[in-house]
Every structure is written in C-alpha cells, then in structure tokens.
Amino acid sequence: MPRTKGDHEARRREVSEAVWRVLAAHGFAGLTLRAVATELGATTGLLTHYFPAKRDLVAHALDLLEQRSAARPRRTAGPGLSAVRAALLDILPLTGPATDRNRIWVSSWDTALSDPGLSEDYAGKYGRSRDKLRDLVAAAQEVGELPAGDPADLAAGAQSFVLGLVVQALFDPAAFPPDRQTQLLEDYLAALTSGAH
What is the pLDDT of residues 66-92, one digit of tens each? Predict the structure, then answer.
C-alpha cells in the first residue's frame, strides 16, 4: 500500500519531535543521526530519507528552533515600559520550556559561528530582535517612561544585558533562579528609567 502525503507529513513531525528532544537533552553537540534514530526508535537508514547529510539535520534543527521560538506564547502588556519589560522577560529561562529553548539556542552558537552562512543568518535574527525592541523602547520614550536618546542603543544594551543573564542562568541555575533573574531585570530597568525623570 503506497504511503500518502499525510503519512509523510506525520512521520516528518515525529522526526522533528525526536530532533527537539535530542537538542533539549544534549544540545547541538549531541545532535547526530544515530541519537535521533535512537530517540525515534528507528534506524539511521530511515532518517537518511529525511536528512541525507548531517548538515541537513542541523539546518532542520535550526529551522525547528526558529519556528518554535516564533510560535511560543508571549506575555501581554500595555504600551510603554511594560511592553519592554514583557519582551525581555520572554527571553529569560524562567520556566522549564524556556530553559530548554535557551539551552538549545546557546548550544547552537558554536555551530552558527563555524558556518559563515549560519553566522549571517544569526546576525540577522538578533538584528530583527533588536529592531522590535527598539520600537518598544521608542514607544516608552514617547510617553516619558524611558530617557531620551537613541532607542537603538538602549535596545542593544537591553538585549545584551538579557542575553548575558541567560548565559549566567544556564551555567549556574542555583545562583540565578527565576526570581533572581526577574529581580535583576527589574533593577536594570529601574536604572534605565531613573534618567527619564
């Protein structure tokens, strides 16, 4: 009986879920056809139908990571500083799924830095994230909740602060539990807003 397109798509979803579980458990360093096959309970031969080479598997994993990041629920907030705060909180590893997502992102940096094409893609991703944050900062400046100045610079500083906090929390979760991460972010924003008054 021939396989239908629906069967193929369902199998591809199963493979994607197995890729995600391997990434969450072992990062990009542990992403191999054998590890995904074991997670899936299949043979590596089956996987080569979907990923003829390791590069194809890595590309799929990066696409999957971006799709999951884009589709994840976001905090709702009003305009101004509360929107900036919500956007920054959404980045932090404050929950189990957010920690997994951040572990995968950070583990992917080595892969991206060693591949000029991926490196360029990542620079674009972080640039788009800064642009969105810049727009939120500019809106907060318009209502006087953040000090005047180049909103792009404030956004770059805020993004850098939060990404640094992500790394600290991933390497030392006992020292940077969710409540401390949140408080450090509040302190950072308080220092920023002190110039607005």
Answer: 777 777 777 777 889 999 999 999 999
